[in-house]
Backbone:
């Protein structure tokens, strides 16, 4: 099937008379050819891309680089190109071992034109099959690369959607937090500051990213339960009576109930329920002690109380920095978890918090 197709044959032969015989044979068969005088020259030629042969005729005995040394190199550079070894008469053993080493076939010198033609035709057919296989391989590889790229970009898209969802969740949480601040006029910016400080403490405590995320939601929404408390009690100037106090003390339970209706906020709901618990067990609503208190709630408790002390409330004016610091220290292990207080001071969050408070526009 390849009889009339013009091919390129690389002739690797040191003997001038053999070069001539082979050149004439190629001309008679209508093939192009190139001559290399030894293995080295042949390797250099194909390596440089100076010749792209369809088959290689490779002499075994040559100076500089003999055929058996050149064979593996040529096979590596041109894996689909068949190599036909040229052996001297009586050197069949070498021809056979060359085939074991990857040669396609061998010709005994001198060979008849028909024999050379037959061997070359078989070699060209072999090359075509090999090329088809290689092409198939390339296509498959390209498909794999394309597929990988598509998978990667869908991952990226998914990541973007996830980020957007998270942003939307946070926006929803902010909107909810604002509804509390509208109701409770003394708490302007309070939820956001509690979120910020809780997040800073959580990070300083090296909590996992998922916990920090839930901590932020819980901190932002810790007083969401105040939605269920009458305004007359929430904004009452002066002391509350026992019944009013009891009603106000319901807000962590109401808040946890509101949040637990959304699966995503379940972790945050547990923290909201415990944000008024105390280390000594005298808190509310459950009166749990130390390790019984939700871990995220212990952080929110400190942030919430600190912000309440540092800002003006219906029942008193804001305490100054030194007073707040003294209070927090005094309440370590009483109201607050000792490790939370320690991390708060160790990471300089006392100063950072007051700096942030001073920088707020309405306080300047
Ligand atoms: Fe609260």
Residues:
């Amino acid at each position: 099937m390849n009889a009339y197709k013009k091919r390129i044959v690389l002739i690797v032969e040191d003997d001038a008379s053999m070069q001539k015989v082979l050149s004439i044979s190629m001309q008679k068969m209508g093939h192009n050819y190139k001559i290399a005088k030894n293995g080295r020259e042949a390797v250099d030629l194909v390596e440089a891309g100076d010749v792209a042969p369809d088959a290689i005729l490779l002499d075994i005995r040559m100076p500089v680089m003999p055929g058996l040394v050149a064979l593996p190199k040529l096979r590596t550079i041109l894996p689909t190109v068949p190599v036909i070894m040229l052996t001297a008469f009586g050197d069949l053993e070498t021809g056979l071992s060359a085939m074991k080493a990857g040669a396609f076939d061998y010709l005994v010198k001198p060979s008849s034109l028909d024999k050379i033609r037959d061997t070359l035709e078989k070699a060209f057919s072999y090359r075509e099959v090999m090329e088809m296989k290689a092409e198939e391989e390339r296509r498959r590889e390209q498909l794999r690369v394309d597929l990988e790229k598509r998978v990667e970009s869908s991952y990226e898209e998914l990541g973007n959607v996830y980020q957007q969802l998270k942003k939307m969740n946070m926006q929803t949480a902010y909107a909810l937090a604002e509804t509390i601040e509208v109701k409770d006029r003394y708490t302007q910016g309070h939820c956001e500051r509690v979120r910020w400080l809780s997040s800073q403490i959580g990070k300083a405590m090296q909590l996992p990213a998922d916990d920090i995320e839930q901590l932020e939601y819980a901190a932002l929404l810790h007083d969401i339960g105040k939605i269920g408390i009458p305004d007359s009690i929430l904004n009452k100037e002066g002391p509350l009576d026992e019944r009013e106090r009891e009603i106000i003390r319901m807000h962590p339970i109401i808040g946890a109930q509101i949040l637990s209706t959304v699966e995503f906020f379940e972790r945050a709901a547990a923290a909201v329920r415990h944000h008024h618990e105390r280390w000594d067990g005298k808190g509310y609503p459950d009166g749990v002690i130390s390790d019984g208190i939700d871990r995220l709630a212990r952080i929110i408790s400190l942030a919430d109380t600190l912000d309440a002390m540092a800002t003006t409330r219906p029942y008193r004016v804001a305490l100054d920095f030194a007073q707040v610091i003294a209070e927090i220290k005094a309440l370590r292990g009483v109201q607050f978890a000792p490790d939370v207080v320690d991390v708060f001071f160790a990471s300089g969050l006392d100063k950072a918090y007051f700096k942030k408070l001073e920088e707020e526009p309405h306080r300047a």
Notes: Residues 222-223, 251, 275-276 surround fe (ii) ion (CB under 6 Å). The two ends are 92 Å apart (CA to CA). The beta strands are 8-12, 32-36, 55-59, 83-88, 105-109. The mean pLDDT is 88.
